[in-house]
Amino acid sequence: MSFSYHDDEDWFSYAVGKDNWMPLSIASMMLGEARMDAHRLIADYSRRTMWLDPESAEFSAWINANDAVFDRIATIERDPPVEATERQSQGWPEKFSLMGPHEVSYQYRLFWRRAHVDMSEDFLAVSDAHAEFCRLAEMRSVTVSLDALRESLTDLVEYWFEARGYAVDKDLHLVNVQGYEALFYSAEQGY
User: Residue 10 phi/psi, 5° resolution?
Assistant: First the structure.
C-alpha cells in the first residue's frame, strides 16, 4: 500500500501512491461500494505500518482530497467493456476479469485481513524456543501461502482494471486514476 524510505536511524518517509496513480490495494478494497470497510483497513495500516494517526490532520486531508476519486472507484460498473469479454480465455487471470467489483473487493479485503493480522504484542527479542517454533514448516507454509495468494490477487486486480480500460503500473502495483492525490508522510519510529 505504501513505499517507505529510510531517512536516518529512526525516521522514515512514506508515499501512498503517486499523483494520479493509486495503489492497487486501495483501489481493490474500494470497489463495490465497500468504502467504509476499506477506510477501516487503510486507517489500521496507517496506524501500524506508517505510524500515522488516522485522526491526524494529514490523514484526514488525504482522505478528503481523494473523496471524489474514491467514490469513482467504488462505483465502477459491474460489467467490463465488450472488448474485454470478446477476448476472454480460460487462462489465469483472464477468466476472472468478469468478476463483479464487489467480488474483487471482497476477496482483496479478505486477503488483507489474513495477511495483516494486528497483534498487540511487539517482540523485540524472543526466546530460543519461540524462535524455533516460528521456523516450523507449518508456520512457514502459512507465510508461503499468503505470499502466493498476494501474487495471484495482484495479477487478478491488475488484469481486472486493465480490462476496464485503466492503465496499470505492474512494477509498482499502481492503477492510473486521474485526480488521485498521493499521501507523503514522514515519521519517527524509535522505541
Answer: -120, 0
